[in-house]
Amino acid sequence: MARATDGRRDDAMTGEPEHQGAGGSERWFRNLLTSISDTVTLVDRELRVLYTTGAVNGVLGYPTDFWQGVLPFDAVHPDDLPRVLADWERSLASPGVEVSSESRMRAADGSWHDISITGVNLLDDPEVGGVVITTRNITALRQAERLASSQAAVLERVARGAPTTEIAGDCIELMHRNGLRGIASIYLLEGDRLELRAGDAPRSVRDWVREPVRDPARSLCDRAMATETPVVIVDLGMAELDEGLRAIVAAEGIRSAWSVPIASISSGRPVGSLSILAEEAVEPTAHERQVADVAASLVAIAVERERNESQLAHQALHDALTGLPNRALLLDRTDHALARREATGASLALLFCDVDRFKVINDSLGHNVGDQLLVAFADRLRAVVSPTDTVARFGGDEFVVLLEEVAGPEEPVRLAEQLAAALEEPFVLAGGKEVYLTASIGLAMADDHAAGDEWLRDADAAMYRAKDEGRNRLVLFDTQMRDAALRRLQVEHDLRRAVARDELVVHYQPVIDLDRGSIVGAEALVRWQHPERGLLSPAEFVAVAEDIGTIGELGRHVLDVALRELSSLEVVDPATFHLGVNVSARQVSEPDLDQMVGAALERHGWPPSSLLLEVTESALVEVDHPVEALARLQELGVQLAIDDFGTGHSSLARLGRLPVDWVKVDQSFVGALDGPDRRLGRIVDAVIALAGALDLGTSAEGVETHAQLDELRRKRCHLAQGYLFSKPVPLDELRDLLASDPRW
Ligand code: C2E
Ligand code: CA
Ligand code: CA
Known about the structure:
- By secondary structure, the chain is an alpha+beta fold.
- The chain has four domains: 10-137, 2-Layer Sandwich (Beta-Lactamase), CATH 3.30.450.20; 143-315, GAF domain (Beta-Lactamase); 327-477, Reverse transcriptase/Diguanylate cyclase domain (Alpha-Beta Plaits), CATH 3.30.70; 505-740, Alpha-Beta Barrel (TIM Barrel).
- It has an eight-stranded mixed beta barrel with strand order 19-20-22-23-24-25-26-27, surrounded by four helices. A six-stranded antiparallel sheet has the order 1-4-5-6-2-3, sandwiched between helices. Strands 8-7-11-10-9 form a five-stranded antiparallel sheet, sandwiched between helices.
- Helix 6 runs antiparallel to helix 10 (286-317), helix 11 (327-344) packs across helix 15 and helix 18 packs parallel to helix 20 (593-604).
- The radius of gyration is 46 Å and the shape is elongated.
C-alpha cells in the first residue's frame, strides 16, 4: 500500500537544518522529535543514515547503534521487502513528493510489528540533502483493525444463525489469526458437564475439564467460572495444582495455561470457559487478552442466540399456562406416531379429554381461578399417564393424551378410569373453596388414519358423544361419529348467524292446571328453522350454543319473542297466564341477567309474576352463587322453577336454601308412574311431599297417558304438561287451543 502525495514538507525539520551540530537549536529539535511517537530518519542516496531519532528512543527494542550506518532492511519482513524497495526507488525518482509505504518489521525480541513509512526526497534541497523518512509503529492499530474485522465476520455468522459449535470453531480460528499464542479451546456447560465445543486441547485435558465436579481447585476453567475473571498461570510447574491435573500437564508438556470465563449475556452466570495452553511460559499480552475477551464474548452471544431460539421454539410448541405440548406439537407427534406405526405395527391410542362445564366455572369463578384449575387438572392428568406418553393441551379446557404402543383399547380405558378416580378428590382453591371437576373423554385407536388431524378429529367426535351422553364418561369412537362431528361443526357455524337471520322460532307447550283441568299457561320452547335441515329441536343446538357462547343471545331472543307473541294474543290474559321460559346455566351466571329480564318485561308490558323462569337442577350446580343470582331475579317479581328435578343429584339441603317457587318433576319419573319400575314412580311422591314441605308448587312434565294424569291428580300435583294434552305448537295453534278452552 504505497501512496504518493504531492506536497513538499515545509515544517520545522526542514526549516532547522542543524542536524550535524550540537548547538542549542539541535537540542530543541531532538526534544521535539523524541517527544512524538514517530521516528524521523534522514538518509542519503545510498541509504546511509545521516540522522535518526530512533537512535535516541530505542525503536523496536534494538540498541541505539542498530540504527546507525545503513538502514536495517534485514529487519523488514522478506515478503514486504520488494515493495519497500520499490517505494524507495520511487521516492528517489520523485523529489519532493511524499511516498507512503507499510511493512512488517521484526523487533529485537523477534516479534513482528506493523510499521508505516513515509519518505520525502529532499536530496536536492541544499538545506537538507537527504531523504526524510518518518516511521510509525502502527501494530496496535492494525491489530485492533484485524480483530475488529474478524469479530465482525463472526458476528455476522452468528446473526445468520450458524450453530454455536461452528461459532466456537470460528472463535478458535479468530484467536489464532489474531496472534494468540498457545492451543485454544472452548468449553461450554451442558448440564453439569463442561464439554469441549471447539479447539485442540489434548484428550486427557478435555476429559479432566469435562468431569461434572465444578471445583475451582481442580481446574482452571472451573476457577475462571467460579471467580468470573480470567485465570492466568504462566508457569504451571511453579503453581499449586491438583495432583491429577499436575500429572496431565506434565505428561502433555504444558507449561502455561489460562482460562477466560464465558458469561451468559442475559443472566451473567458462567456458561463455559475458554482455555489456552502453551508449551512455553507465556504471559498473555494486553492484545492477547483482548483477543480472548472478544472470542469469549462472541461465544456468549452465540450461546444466547441459541438459547433464545430454543426458548422461542419451546414457546412455539408448548402451552404457556401448563407447560404441556401444544396443539402444533401434538399434531407433529401424532403424525410421527402414525408414520412409525407403519413400521412397527404397534397399536396407538388418543384420549381426548374435555373438562365438563368448564366455561361455566370460568365465567363464574373468574379466569384466574379457571387458569389455576386447568393447571391442577393438567397435573392430575400427567400423574396418571406414564412419562413417555404425550399429554398435550389442545385448547382451552381440552387435553389430549397420546399413548404409543398400547396392547389394545383396554389400556387407555384403564387410564381414563384412573383419571376419573383422580378427579374424585376436590380441587381446593385459595380460600379453601372446593371445586369438583369431571371430564368427558373420547377414545380413538389409530386405524387407517393418514394423518394426525383426522385421528384427533375422531377422538374429538367421541368426546362430543361423551358430552351428549351426559358428560363425565368415556366413549370409544366408532365411524358413525364422524358424520355427527361434521354435523356439529356445521351447527356451530350456522348457529352464530341463526339469531341475526331470524331463524329461531318459538313453540309453546300448554300447561294444565290439574285442579281445573284447563290450560293456564305455556312453556316456550325454542326451535331452529334451519335453511337446509328444516326444523331442528333444541337437543341439536342448545348445548352447542352453550359451548360456543351464543346461549345468552339465544336466551334473550327467545324471551323477547315469547313475551311479544303472547302479549299479542287476545285469548291470553297476562295477569293470570303462566309463561315458562328456559334459562341456561351460563345465563344465570351472567351478572346482568336480572336487568335483561326486567327490560324485556317492561318492553312488552308483561307482569313479572306471570313469567316463570325454568333453570335445570344441574345448571344450578354449576353456578357459583346460585342463591344470590336467583334472589336478584326474584326481586323482579318473577317466579322461578327448578327444571328436570330429580336428575341433578342436588341435595335436599341445597334445594331448601334455593329461592324458588316451583319444582318441575322430570319426565323420567312421570313416565315411571305407569311403567314397570314402580320404585322410580314413587320418587314422584317424594318430590311432591318435599315440595309441599318447602311450600313450593309442583309441575309434572312429559305426561303422556291418562294413567299418569290420574296418578298426578291423586298425588295433588298442581300443574302438568305433556303430549297427552298437546305437543309444543306454533303460536297460531296455541291460540286456537286456548280459544277452544279444552278440559281434561
Ligand atoms: P325441557 O325444558 O325439559 O323441555 C321439555 C321437553 O320435553 C321439550 O323438548 C318438550 O318438547 C318435551 N316434551 C314435552 N312433553 C313431552 C311428552 O309428553 N313426552 C316426551 N317424550 N317429551 C315431551 P324440547 O322442546 O326438545 O326441549 C328440550 C330441552 O331444550 C328443554 O327441556 C330445555 O331444557 C331446552 N330448551 C328448549 N328451549 C330452550 C330455550 O329457549 N332456552 C334454553 N336455555 N333451553 C331450551
Ligand atoms: Ca323447561
Ligand atoms: Ca324439563
